[in-house]
Design goal:
Elements (H helix, E strand, L loop, with lengths): L1 H6 L1 E3 L1 H23 L2 H7 L20 H18 L3 H17 L7 H15 L8 H4 L8 E3 H21 L3 H4 L2 H17 L3 H7 L2 H23 L1 H22 L4 H8 L6 H8 L16 H19 L11 H4 L14 E11 L4 E4 L8 H7 L3 H17 L5 E11 L5 E2 L24
Antiparallel strand pairs: 1-2, 3-4, 3-5, 5-6
Length: 443
Amino acid sequence: MFYQLLFKKVDNSPVVLFRIFFGSLMAIESWGAILTSWVKDTLVTPAYTFTFIGFEFLSPLIGEYMYVHYVLMGFFGLLMALGWRYKLNAFLFALFWSVTYFIQKTQYNNHYYLILLIAWIMCLIPAHNYFSLDVKHKRVEEKQSVSNWVVLIFIVQVGIVYFFATVAKIYPDWLNGKFISIMMNGSASWFEKHLNFQPIIQVFRNHYFHLFLAYSGIVFDALILPAMMWRKTRKWAFVLAIFFHLFNSATLHIGIFPYFALSLCLFCFDRASIQQRFFKKKPFFKDLEVQSVDSKQKIIASVFVVYIAIQCFLPLRHWLIPGDVLWTEEGHRLSWRMMLRSRYGKTDFYYKNKETNFIQKINFSDFLTADQISDFQSKPDMIWQFAQHLKQHYQNKGVYDLEIYVESQVSINGGEMRPYIDSEVDLANVKWSYFGHQTWLLD
């Protein structure tokens, strides 16, 4: 039964259409990042970036080369959409996107991680076997079908995202509208500055509107995928999804993600409907059961199960780490805790030369941009990384016997400031615990 579910042959229209949408959106995202100065502000101007821990070897790429990187990445996305040497360009896009993902955390968003996962999935699936330049130039054989696992992987992945996003929202500051009020007040300030349309501004600052958004957000995340999968509710669910994502696009300014999320809805629609609307010349392929399963398919099935297991484990891993993930941030990334909290930190770093007993307070602006200074002071991994960066900086100046101490306070969702880092611990000489709790974090 399981093998039948994974390997029966189904019409490939949703996969082909998604290839076109995904590649086009990635081209827009890549080139748009240059035009909006995102690349300049995030990857060119900074002298140092906060990479994912373990990916420090990517740091030398920071600088004007990143303009070339993003131009090329956009072309890879466009060529992927066109289906021209699809496998190569899908791989190159996934590789280049992985570099941009792991190279900095200041502008971290969960949708960057989702794009990363989808990009590597695209490398593995035959999305170019119809309506592509590869077919036109006879580099691949034209086909009307794919194995069902190709469609299921997208549906299950989206289901995981929405499920854990729902669970993460069930905590006091979401349920009482406190966090939503912070977001909406920020949006109201933006509209006041750019449009000054008071009716919208007043709605955005209304507490009952905040509560409505909080609970409707939970309901949407919990029910949108089942509603999209059920034929009787699919039409209205898709209309609701359009409204939801366009509202987020207008108020949260999160780039192409709302449109990327809408494109993933393709896999919930009836395949015959997609074929009739977008590929009228294409014969519709009726589902075909498999008669037997070979060793290659068994390997694919095993990889499928392992991948889904990992995706389910990552959002749960914070339960294995002492402390509240909302406070410690340990286990926060890669777990679909999306738009969930607002953090503010006030942190001071002190450099001590042990040979001379000279102590100096660090001026952040000597090392970091304004965006980096604003973001890193409330994130424990970035605080530790900056201590390591300072250690290397002073060692390059010939000072090897040194210590770095930190005094830090953090506020969650506008709450009281609380001590965050043990100020007696020398962070320059503390190892990072990759899978456990950082003992220098205060409860």
